[in-house]
Amino acid sequence: MAEPTISSPSAPPSGLILRSLTLGYLGLMVVLPLVALTIQAAEPGAGAFWEQLTNPFALHALRLTFITAFAMVIVNIVTGTATAWVLVRYRFPGKGLVNALIDMPFAVPTVVAGLMLVVLFGPSSTLGAILGKYGWGVIYHKPGVILALLFVTYPFVIRSVQPVLLEMDAAEEEAAATLGAGSWTIFRRVTLPTLWPSILTGAALSFSRALGEFGSVAMVAGNHPLETKTAPLYIFGEIESENRHGAMVVSVVLLACSLLILIFLNVLQKRGGRAHVH
Amino acid sequence: MSTEAPAAARSTVLATGRSSLGRRLLIGAVLGWFALLILVPTAALAKEALSGGLRTLFASLMKPEVLRAFRLTLVTTALATIVNTIFGLALAIVLVRQKFWGKTLLDGLVDLPFAVSPIVAGLMLIVLYGPKGWFARPLAAANIQVAYAVPGMVLACLFVTLPFVVREVVPVLQEFGVDQEEVAYTLGAGRWTTFWRVTLPSIRWGLAYGVTLTVARSLGEFGALLVISGNTVNKTQTATLYVHDAIDSLDPQGAYAVSLVLAGTSFVLLVGMEWMRKRVATREGKA
Question: What is the spatial distance between Cα B74 and Cα A3, in angstroms, rounded to a whole number?
């Protein structure tokens, strides 16, 4: 929508003061910390940076972060799309309640989320004991990390796909049904192509969140350096053991990845917007 | 939402073609996943917290260090919420109502805290305000301690919650437009009067939603606080830090009790948000 600036009455200095104040706040709160971290990480030179980055523990932590985040995204694409679909297209008792509780993971503190999973799946719980008997360790193992990521990112794909499904014109689907296409074919050939951008948006948001997730993972991962230590846990460990440069190097890598995802999302939204217009 | 009814009506046409067994299976699978991931863990925590009876739960919550932790959480949350409500509102107004060079960049910068790991956020604050940080000397000269103290923790909450109010207010402000504001100007109302009597009332639900998100995030912040607080018991320990420590120091009962209160609080906030979202939706429906 066009947003005309209020022309004559608001142009004078008060608007400029407001702008300077807010820009100053944003600069102090967001830009300066980012710049400071990047400069400090780069200061000892490229060699030192490379050395910290290729340290086996750092590499393992980064790799684990990406692998677990990727596993989470795959699950979320399927379950998130299915959940949005069921919430929009079907009627069943308790739907309103489920819809309201979808955002629970955004509201619950991450530490509490992690603790919940430890209580339910931990080695001393009934469920954990049963799983452990079959050799399926969850808590303090990689599956626990993925489970924690799944919990904290649960709403992203759902909340991204839901509005698109709601607004979608069912005419094309109906036409396909009239022409005798089965429901799976309709979903795959007609519905899914419309949903993809929103699914990708939700997936990218959850991936970005998973890269940085700390609280819940800290609770379920325990302290197993080359087993469950993701990049944020590694960063915290290095801060604690006074290797601040190592912490900063991995931080910069994480930041760069998150920034790339943000840019990707922006491009996706712009293209989506254009596709809408045509 | 106004689109819901026709969409549902249309979908029944489609649904008749779909086998009802497949539909039931899909609903069952979706609900099962939701229960396994969200409901059952919450219930498990509640069960553990209440396993010793209400009296034990209260005893855990009434410990002086627990009360102090909750008080500190409330203080940091209140300060962060007040500051970010004011600046978030101002940022939203600048982003929607003003035109200037670099606005797109500014728009992107607002979202940055969402892309930063809480641990990295804490580290950035240490780099600036820590003992060897960029601002170490002037801060020491002024005898202000930021890192490993409450001011640093407020800064951490401010950083992680910065986007919420802006992101919720911007769309409402855009939709509201400038017509009514211009009418108020024409009728001789001053800038403040216009803001208080015209702009604020019309964006209040969006603002309230953003503020609630800010509160929820501040209450639950952990990673950034862990780094910047130094986590000294009784001094810089918040409720979430207490949960983490209590597990480590083998006081699971205390951790369960505090977690249950935190989860309950976030549930109440969530219900409030749902209510606000309906208000926003009905407003949009009318317009």
Answer: 38
Does the residue A180 lie in any domain?
A: yes
Q: What is the pLDDT of residues B149-182, one digit of tens each?
A: 999 999 999 999 999 999 999 999 988 878 888 8
Contacting A residues, span 44-73, partner chain B, CB-CB under 8 Å: none
Name the closest residue on chain A to residue B25, using Cα atoms.
Answer: A86
- Does ipTM top 0.90? no
Neighbouring residues of A130: CB distance < 8 A, sequence distance ≥ 6: none
Asked if the structure places residue A201 within a domain, the reply is yes
At B196, is the secondary structure helix, strand, or coil? Answer: helix
What are the domain boundaries of chain B? Answer: 1-49, 54-286
Q: What is the least distance, in Å, from the CA of B139 to any CA of chain A?
A: 15
Number of domains in chain A: 1
CB B41 within 8 Å of CB A139: no
CATH number belonging to domain B54-286: 1.10.3720.10
Residue-wise pLDDT for B84-141, tens only, equals 999 999 999 999 988 888 888 888 889 899 889 999 999 999 999 998 889 988 998 9
Residue A10 resides in a domain: no
For residue A261, what is the domain's CATH number?
1.10.3720.10
d(CA B75, CA A118): 29
Are the Cβ atoms of A255 and B42 closer than 8 angstroms? no
| Class of residue B113 by CB neighbours under 10 A (exposed 0-12, middle 13-18, buried 19+) | buried
pTM confidence score: 0.89
Q: What is the pLDDT of residue A276?
A: 39
Contacts of A215 in chain B (CB under 8 A): 118, 220, 222-223, 240
Q: Is residue A4 part of a domain?
A: no
Partners of A247 on chain B (C-beta within 8 Å) are: 123
Half-sphere exposure of A190 (CA within 13 A, CB side): 20
